[in-house]
Known about the structure:
With 352 residues, the protein is mostly helical.
Amino acid sequence: MTTKRSLATIALLAALGAGTMVPAAYAADAATAVGATTALPAWKRDFVVRLTETDPRPEVVLAAWTALRNGDSGILAFMAPDGGFAKAKARHLEQAARYDTIIARVLRTTTRKSSPAVWRAADFASRGVFSDKDHFVNTGWDAAIAEDERNENREEEQVAQQAQADRDFVASLAGSDPGAWVRAAATLAGRGDAELADFFKFGWDTAARGDTEAHRVRVGDQEAAWQHRVTTLLRAAEEAETALANADAALVEKARETAVNAWREVSGLAGSAQRGWDAERARAAGQAASWRAVADFARTATTAQNWHDISEHAGTTGTSWTGEREWAEAQARQWTSLLESARAAEARVAAV
């Protein structure tokens, strides 16, 4: 057995950005492996590009752009456990906590009756996504104060009675919508006419964005953790295989067992990641189908809500979830390829 890297090892390390780089799809071609360059594979770079396009955390987006501008080394440093990605997430959490503290203080010191515009804006921000909180603290709070000052001598706004059909529809969302944010917002809307009116004005839209952003944050963070872990396991498997190649006859059995177990760990993680992305694909497909159903319902609804805008919003949100499904499918395919290569490497090492 040679001490040079096996083609399977080269392929697996290439896909995750470690060692000699060669696309996994061509790893079986010896000539391709020998002529491989050291360019960072598209998989890791595509992940960072996606962060710049879809991650809702401004700090992460900025750090991802910086990593891309710094080339392959910048991307690898960005995705390290204590690298730019982790630090950007920590900065975001600190900023979000500051905003939450401010908003909570506003809600404690105002009421819907005494300062309706401020209270409404703060309540909206408290249940909104990060961009809603940022807007309130930096712009919306002052605007709401000015609105209350303009309206201080007016009679309290009357909320129109909501149609029973709207109540029934929102109740169905509270019980069966696939998004946790939408279910929570719909449950709150069931408290009364004012809450139901707020749901159709802004609560539903905010909750929909919350579900999308929560999904993107969760899958992005999980994929980064998987990629780092599997890169570590691949390097360990390569070292174990090298040790097997150089082992004395008396130590071959032990070295073989170590190498087989190392590749088995790679297979195990790749299988877990594949199943994880398959589950995310199913969740995204369910969301897309749900929003298509909302769009269909809105086109024929006859109550006083702005169903035209709701239909358009539902179509846009459904398209976003279709994109999430496609991304999950692509990631599942990448991990499937890694799984197959790792299993082949395990079998090959076991046969030595």
